Amino acid sequence: MHTSNNNTGGAVVDNIIPFTPEGEFYFNKGVRAFRKREFEKASKWLRRAVELSPKQPVYQCQLSVVHTETGDYHTANQILMNVLADFGHEYVDCYYLISNNYAHLGLFQDAKKYAKEYLNKAPEGDFKEEAEQLVSVLDIEEEEDEDDDWAFEEEDELMMHQESAFYYMERQQWKEALPILEEMIRLFPNFVSAKHDYAVCLFFAGEEQEAIELEEQWHEREPFSLHSMCNLAVFYFHQGKAQQSQGHIQKLRNVYPIGEQQKLRVAATLTQVGEYAAAYDRFCRLEKGKLKGHLSYYKWFSIAAYHTGEPSKALSLWEEGCTRHPNLAEQGGPWQQG
């Protein structure tokens, strides 16, 4: 028997309200997928959100971030430029996001221009520190490009010293690396990383206090130096001085360098100070093809993986690392460290 809720005797009308999702529904799905690093799904849902709610610039900004994460920097910037054209006075963060994308593309002049524009329009904005650091890094890049007066012979000599020091440091042969680095500092005083590598070797060769004093002096002169922040975070961590170490760790959490070598340095440092989840996330973003020659890439990545609940990934990395760098096997597996 059919029961009708229509008391007028007319045709039965089902009391159902059709569900038509709006942009917010798809935006939330996209954000959840993004947080799970399911970028294809995130892009799909966010594009749908933009279609349904084209007047919501935050949806477009989030979609641009997905493109940035997948390396599609040009598309990300096209989206952000559209947001600026329509909502520029309200969404000044776009200037920083655009500058970051240009930096990844190697278009440093454009990156610097938009970073400065962001600082001009939002001097106390959420990305203030990141934008200032980006401008600082780009200034250094420009100085290095302009200061190209070394003879080829000198460049070859520097390369030889650098490779020798790198060889010993990767194998934790700190005392063997020290005299090479001392000579590098004497011959090439403008080669900044040599003095910071020298401090690392001093520290692990047993001269901890001297290493810290040197690094603190350099940090005072250059408070935004990535080398100093990394070294001091590790030095103080090893000495059990959690508060001093944590100050530098917090700064490193907000640093996203441009070059793969610098990215590796931050990821390895975060692993060494027990910030495994943050380190693992950084390692997953690295371009492996550019870092296969680094024993430290396999060592610290495998340790970070092991301590974030990825033992099979850790073992795979360690085995590949030992195949490429037999000396790695002498340093003990990731399960023995941390």
TrEMBL record:
TPR repeats lie at residues 23-56. InterPro entries: TPR-like_helical_dom_sf, TPR_rpt. The keyword Cytoplasm does not apply. The keyword Endoplasmic reticulum does not apply. Keywords: TPR repeat. Coiled coil: none annotated. Gene3D superfamilies: Tetratricopeptide repeat domain. This is Tetratricopeptide repeat protein. It comes from Pontibacillus chungwhensis BH030062.
